[in-house]
Amino acid sequence: MYFTRRHIQILGVLAILISVGAWAMDLTGVVYVCPYCRMQRSVIGLLGLGMLSPVSLGWTGRYLATVIGFLGAVVAATQHFNGWKKISAGKFAFNEAIYIDPFLLSGCALFIIVGQVMLYYANPDARRLRF
């Protein structure tokens, strides 16, 4: 199913809101400082900003989105895999100090980032723009 430009912009705004909300929780001290999480929320926000720009549908925008997206996906996958290593070693315990464990959040971030990058390529309008 293809998304029109309007739908991609709506999803871009949603991604920016997710990123800003996560950064607000970080900067107010609601969640602990985590470099993995900071990178993931920054990538989600940057990809969301790109989804608002018509230039992002050209090959340069898609290339930059892919590079930024891969960086975020690698960070999210690394954080998530570290959780699986703890499970395999028998040392994993859900963090009771926070409501949602970083192990689960990193999996969600991975899905969001990969989905965002896929939207850059799924848009039929991308074939018409040549910037």
From TrEMBL:
The protein's name: Disulfide bond formation protein B
Organism, as annotated: Phenylobacterium koreense
Keyword Transmembrane helix: yes
Transmembrane segments: 12-33, 64-82, 102-122
Keywords, in A-Z order: Membrane, Transmembrane, Transmembrane helix
